[in-house]
Structures are given as C-alpha cells and as structure tokens.
C-alpha cells in the first residue's frame, strides 16, 4: 500500500500490525496476521514487564539507587504509553481514520484539478519533513543509548568499608543473563530498541492523524479563496446560471467543512485520553531526563542525553504545534468566507454565509482529556512544569 501522506509510516505500522488491511481478499491472511500480532505484542509486553520487574528490584533491593530509579521510571513510562497508543491505533476508530486519509488522497490524485493537487502536496511536504527529522533523531537516540555505557561511570555504593560498583547499561530492565556483562548488554539493547520501535511508530501515526485535519482545512481554504472561479467552472460543466452554481458550490463546501469537523471530532474522541497520558506527566518525564543529565556531567554524556532531551522537547513541540495549527486554520475559515465577493450573491446564499461564519467561530481542537485544548501554551506549560519538578528532584 502506497500513500504520500503517511509515507514511510505505512511499512513501520505494518510491521507491528497497527495498519488496517483494507485490500486483501484472502481469508487466510487475517488469521495469520492475528497470530503474528499476538506474538509481537506478547514480546513487547514481556520487554516492558522486564522493566517493571527491574523497577521493583530497585525499590525493594538491598542497595537502593535513586538515580537508577529515576532512569527506569522515565524510560519505562514512555514505553508504557507507546504500547497503550499501539493498542488504541489498532481500534476501529483509527481504522476509519486510516481509510479516510487514504481515500481522501486517492480522490485528489484521481481528480482533474491540478491546483488542488498542488495545494495538497504543499501541505503534505512539511508533514513528511517533520516525520523524517523526528525519525532520524530517534534513531540517533537509540544509538546513543546503546553507546552510553561505554562512557558512563559505574554507580558506586558505599557499604561500611566496602565499595560496590554497578555498571550502567542501555536500559534499566530485568535480564536472565545479568551475571554476564556483554550478554546483558546485548539483551537490554535489544529490549530498548524493540520498545523504541513502538514508541516512534505510534508517535508518527498520531502526529499524522492530527496533521491531516489541518491538511483538509487548507484544501477547503483553497476552494473558498477561489469561490468565483469554481462557480464559473460549475456553470460551464453543469450548464446552470451563476446564482445556482454558487448555491451548488456553497453546498459542497459546507459538506466538506462538515467532513472536516466530523474527522477532527472522531480523532479527538479517540486520542484525547492518550493526550492525558502524554502531557499531564510530560513535565515529570522531561525533568527526569534533565536530572540524569545533571548527575552524569561529562562531555560525552551531555551529548548523548542532550540529544535525547532535544528529541523529547521536539516531540512535545510537534504535537502542540500541529494541534495549534489545526485550531488556528479552522478559525481562519470565518475570515476566508467573509472575504469572498458576496455582495452580488442572492439573499439565501448570504444567509448561509452567515451560518458558515458563525460555525467557524468555534475552532477545531485536540484536547487533553476533557480539559484544555492543546496549543502552544501547553508546550510552555510543560517546560515550566519540568523546571519545577527538576528543582524538586535535586532537593530530595
């Protein structure tokens, strides 16, 4: 399946079975897919619970290492949310979103309007670029985490006259081969990389779902900005008077706007609880990473952890900026409707125009649960909260 909007997200989602199969006619494939999906998710759960077991060992163990507790909790929570997001994306609502996006692109590419294709491609290109940069950044994070133990000093625990040294590894997780350093290193590197695959893929898919709403609004804006031109096209193709062509076009644009509203409401209803998991503890997670940076002060560690922290901040920015973009563009539609040449239009079209403008006063938004809408203020709030939690961690 090829789709310009999703791009390389299609194969990424396919490998962890969160992509709905809308093309196959073979009845044997769904059973095979279910078996493979069960194996993949059981393995993912095993990897995650190995981190939970390690967290329990840290808390109840003979040697309590505070820094290791922070490191385990911070990373394991990211992995927990990624698994929850993967399960959510496998649901019926996300399957409808996939089909909506794929069908929308097919209609544009199969249509005869070259200008619409240009607007669509201009909207998709920045989305593709963001995904590529994010993917490259997270690949570097995985590489840096695998290399970090070579440059990280072991944790020293003083017990009476004895000094115990614990070598740090890429991921804080339980391992059946902990007594063999290099086997333990390989095991935990694979655990981290496997769970990071879920983390990155689900992030890219959710970002794409949000960004598609803004893409739809930009297409609608193009039609509104060129209202008179499309009226003339309808006049020639349908053979109707100018006023009737305006009525037909307005009806089509109202229906298109309703489709956008329905899509955004559907997506928001599906992911708003996920956004609570992402944003409410977001300050704590970022503070945990900053704390690790402060407690591993050397040049190499600053580069490795700094790169991860930069990706986490960029990740929060990507979510908030895409949701903010959707909100701002949807509100701009009111001004776009007002700016068309409506003076010579019939009274009934003007009445509908007022309704369209009123409808656009309530901007489309993605919310954190049933609380606030996500915008750039959310991004600043998370950064401020991170500073507060970091201050708390350094005083404990």
TrEMBL record:
GO terms for molecular function: odorant binding; olfactory receptor activity. The chain crosses the membrane at residues 31-49, 133-151, 194-215, 297-318. GO terms for cellular component: plasma membrane. The lineage of its organism: Eukaryota, Metazoa, Ecdysozoa, Arthropoda, Hexapoda. This is Odorant receptor. GO terms for biological process: signal transduction. It holds the Pfam family 7tm_6. Belongs to the insect chemoreceptor superfamily. Heteromeric odorant receptor channel (TC 1.A.69) family. The keyword Transmembrane applies. Keywords: Cell membrane, Membrane, Olfaction, Receptor, Sensory transduction, Transducer, Transmembrane, Transmembrane helix. It is found in: Cell membrane. It comes from the Eukaryota. It comes from Dendroctonus ponderosae (Mountain pine beetle).
